[in-house]
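Lecture 7 notes: from sequence to structure.

We start with a single chain of 287 residues. Read the sequence below before looking at the structure.
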Amino acid sequence: MSDYLLETKLREENEGLHRRTKDSAAVLQKMLESFLPRFPNYTDHTMLHSMDVLEYSNMLLGEKQIKRLSAAECYVLMMSCYLHDIGMGINQKNYETLSEKIDFGNYFETHSRDDAETIIRDFHNEYSGLFIRKYAELFDIPCEEMVFAIVQVSRGHRKTDLLDQAEYHDLMTEYGIIRTAFLAAIIRLADEIDVGADRNSELLFDSSKVNSAAGIEAFGTHDSIRSVEVQEDAIVLYIKPIAPKYRELIRILANKIQNTLDYCREVVSLRSDFCITQTDVKIIEIE
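Now the structure, written as tokens:
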């Protein structure tokens, strides 16, 4: 069982840091739900998803490797699991002010500056990082090194170059070492494999109101993946397609997960003495 391994390790190593994560989780629940009205066609980015990402992180790491983590790493990884999608729920004022600090490159050559929803969705990891830094005191993050680490690991759940040693380097703190590239690789893969049917809980979503073609396909694909299992050597998608077309969509998604798995395995291998033991993404159709 991998339930609560990181939380248990942190509580045993440093009760103060453990308390900070619990307090932050309580504050974040409502904040994360604020994405729902703005993004009715997108999959879940609430605390339910954050908790799933945390549990998948537990599974990917396993008990033996979690025992080797410092208290600082447990804290940073847990906080990043809670905070990595906070950028999806920013209000208009924060959207305007935080946008001034993002390097959009040539993005607006093909996208409208007036389409705030698409901009937020495409850069939500950057908005998350900026939001965390702006409100670090609210989350009671104890030192600048940990603020930096949580920002980078949260940003790292998508797009960023985890092999860039200027962006992702090891930090020493009074709470122990923080291997930011390693932690970011774990959260990126954990986020990528949260694709099962429970990703769009009926407690939060009325799927009948999803009206975009992409949204309908995304929700249908999740509904067709009945569960995800992290085995020692593989990540297994157990599927029951709700319509024939979803077999191909699931195959495309599985290839995307495989690419992320390969990249994260490389990062962990090159930037730490830890490992990701899973090598393949498998699809098993069930009755």
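The longest strand covers residues 225-230. Keep this in mind for problem set 3.
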